């Protein structure tokens, strides 16, 4: 006698009950990190406003300046997303390196090298059509950042050099080298006082895809999504995560651990280098002293916040981009120092760390047990 297994399973009360129990569990696992991010954001904003009030500044003026500076016009929205674009890529770069058990703190140096490579190529190819110049400059930015990161990756893979120390050192090398270049061979003839390079030609500049939405943000968002999907949903990504979870087991499984680690690190640097290229082509257009904020460090902040939920990287990038874009408006409207903006960008990490520490403490575990206890 044949048995319809699908029909039996669909009408089995035990199966239905099991599915009913699994659904809230899946939702809980999804909602937990989201809830923590929301809590971090709310607490960070509240603490920032309390700090502003304690220092004697007008809280209402600060809030109005944030809203106006970030959303007051299409240009303001575009500025916020322009600030968010490099953050998406630098955070994704840190997240990718972490998947193979490495910590990429060299995003700032890789971003600057990528920006320099894009600028040099764009200036050298100024006579070519703008689209071709942009394409070659973008490739140069990726290769520049990847090559800079590969130095630390190779040292880590084959010589055991700590990648944190080597990437920090390479950050300073990149910044110093670029300072010397813009004061020397790359200095624009029109720069009489402050050294700077020539500007990228107008037809090689990236504008808005639509009013208020810069093309650089869409490119960064697309590559961020592709990177996360590739790591989470492909066989190569599975190998990378295996190395990050257990290097010894990955070696016994026949994976080329050293080669895959430095190659993943190089790809991570390529993402950061692309961020620098997009900054040059879509935002700054030239290099001068202080031409980039600490986007690499902020990328580490975002990667930490979204470590278990990389889909939140663009959201945090936009939040911190809004704060960064509204900084000048806050300073102009309420005379608030730039340090307040920095505090607002860093507080979410502190909140997430404190909440995590509380959850691991004795009272936190008892509270979790009490909330998880089934009613009798």
Automatic annotation (TrEMBL):
<feature type="transmembrane region" description="Helical">
    <location>
        <begin position="264"/>
        <end position="285"/>
    </location>
</feature>
<dbReference type="Pfam" id="PF02653">
    <property type="entry name" value="BPD_transp_2"/>
</dbReference>
<feature type="transmembrane region" description="Helical">
    <location>
        <begin position="30"/>
        <end position="57"/>
    </location>
</feature>
<feature type="transmembrane region" description="Helical">
    <location>
        <begin position="77"/>
        <end position="98"/>
    </location>
</feature>
<keyword id="KW-0472">Membrane</keyword>
<feature type="transmembrane region" description="Helical">
    <location>
        <begin position="291"/>
        <end position="307"/>
    </location>
</feature>
<feature type="transmembrane region" description="Helical">
    <location>
        <begin position="314"/>
        <end position="333"/>
    </location>
</feature>
<keyword id="KW-1003">Cell membrane</keyword>
<dbReference type="GO" id="GO:0022857">
    <property type="term" value="F:transmembrane transporter activity"/>
</dbReference>
<feature type="transmembrane region" description="Helical">
    <location>
        <begin position="132"/>
        <end position="155"/>
    </location>
</feature>
<feature type="transmembrane region" description="Helical">
    <location>
        <begin position="167"/>
        <end position="186"/>
    </location>
</feature>
<feature type="transmembrane region" description="Helical">
    <location>
        <begin position="110"/>
        <end position="126"/>
    </location>
</feature>
<feature type="transmembrane region" description="Helical">
    <location>
        <begin position="213"/>
        <end position="231"/>
    </location>
</feature>
<feature type="transmembrane region" description="Helical">
    <location>
        <begin position="339"/>
        <end position="359"/>
    </location>
</feature>
<protein>
    <submittedName>
        <fullName>Nucleoside ABC transporter membrane protein</fullName>
    </submittedName>
</protein>
<dbReference type="GO" id="GO:0005886">
    <property type="term" value="C:plasma membrane"/>
</dbReference>
<keyword id="KW-0812">Transmembrane</keyword>
<dbReference type="InterPro" id="IPR001851">
    <property type="entry name" value="ABC_transp_permease"/>
</dbReference>
<keyword id="KW-1133">Transmembrane helix</keyword>
């Amino acid at each position: 006698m044949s048995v319809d297994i699908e029909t039996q399973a669909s009408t089995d009360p035990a199966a239905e009950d099991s599915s009913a129990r699994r659904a809230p569990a899946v939702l809980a696992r999804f909602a937990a990190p989201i809830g923590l991010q929301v809590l971090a954001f709310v607490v960070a904003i509240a603490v920032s406003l309390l700090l502003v009030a304690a220092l004697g500044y007008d809280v209402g003026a600060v809030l109005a300046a944030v809203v106006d500076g970030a959303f007051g016009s299409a240009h303001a929205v575009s500025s916020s997303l322009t600030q968010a674009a490099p953050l998406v890529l630098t955070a994704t770069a840190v997240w990718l390196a972490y998947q193979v058990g490495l910590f990429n703190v060299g995003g700032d140096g890789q971003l600057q090298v990528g920006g320099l490579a894009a600028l040099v190529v764009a200036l050298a190819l100024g006579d070519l059509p703008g689209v071709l110049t942009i394409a070659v400059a973008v490739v140069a930015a990726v290769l520049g950042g990847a090559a800079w990161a590969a130095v630390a990756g190779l040292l880590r893979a084959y010589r055991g050099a700590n990648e944190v120390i080597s990437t920090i050192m390479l950050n300073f090398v990149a910044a110093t080298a670029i300072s010397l270049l813009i004061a020397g061979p790359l200095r624009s003839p029109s720069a009489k006082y402050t050294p700077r390079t020539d500007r990228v030609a107008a037809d090689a500049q990236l504008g808005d895809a639509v009013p208020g939405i810069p093309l650089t943000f869409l490119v960064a968002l697309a590559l961020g999504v592709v990177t996360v999907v590739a790591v989470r949903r492909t066989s190569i990504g599975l190998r990378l995560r295996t190395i990050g979870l257990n290097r010894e087991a990955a070696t016994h499984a026949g994976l080329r651990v050293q080669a895959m680690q430095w190659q993943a690190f190089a790809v991570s640097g390529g993402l950061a280098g692309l961020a620098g290229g997009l900054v040059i082509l879509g935002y700054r257009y030239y290099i001068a002293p202080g031409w980039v904020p600490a986007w690499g460090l902020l990328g580490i902040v975002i990667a930490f916040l979204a470590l278990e939920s990389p889909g939140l990287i663009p959201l945090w990038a936009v939040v911190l981009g809004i704060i960064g874009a509204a900084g000048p408006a806050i300073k102009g409207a309420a005379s608030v120092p730039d340090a307040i903006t920095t505090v607002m960008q860093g507080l979410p990490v502190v909140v997430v760390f404190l909440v995590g520490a509380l959850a691991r403490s004795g009272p936190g575990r008892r509270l979790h047990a009490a909330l998880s206890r089934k009613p009798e």
